[in-house]
UniProtKB/TrEMBL annotation:
Pfam families: DUF6490. Keywords: Membrane, Transmembrane, Transmembrane helix. The chain crosses the membrane at residues 33-54, 66-86, 92-114. This is Uncharacterized protein. It comes from Miscanthus lutarioriparius.
């Protein structure tokens, strides 16, 4: 099982690297798009490391710090993608995108920290 997980993880990182290279190539010259891809990749790698650390276990205080890091990274993802999608939509739909992003972040707070 562990070898299968390792192969899938390697495959996932390979796909991430390939799509990131394609994104760099297609947005070369647009610094904000290249920065978006770099930040998204870094956040995704950090999220993966946090989840791996959470799976391995640790102390109670350590779990709380990892949950906080996971919530911050997922909220960062939500805000990043909402900031890219909302301007492409009509104003009312853009407001709905941001409302859903805030609701998702609030739901994460409830699920991670307030739900016993």
């Amino acid at each position: 099982m562990d070898r299968q997980r390792s192969c899938l993880t390697s495959l996932g990182f390979g796909v991430l690297a390939f799509t990131s290279v394609l994104a760099f190539y297609s947005s070369w010259g647009d610094a904000s798009s290249v920065g978006f891809v770099l930040l998204a990749d870094a956040a995704l790698l950090l999220l993966f490391l946090c989840l791996r650390e959470f799976e391995q276990g640790g102390g109670r205080g350590r779990d709380a710090r990892i949950k906080t890091a996971v919530w911050c990274l997922t909220t960062l993802f939500t805000a990043m993608f909402a900031s890219r999608v909302a301007p492409l939509m009509p104003p009312l739909v853009g407001a709905l995108v941001w409302t859903m992003a805030v609701a998702t972040a609030a739901g994460g707070v409830w699920a991670f920290f307030l739900n016993p």
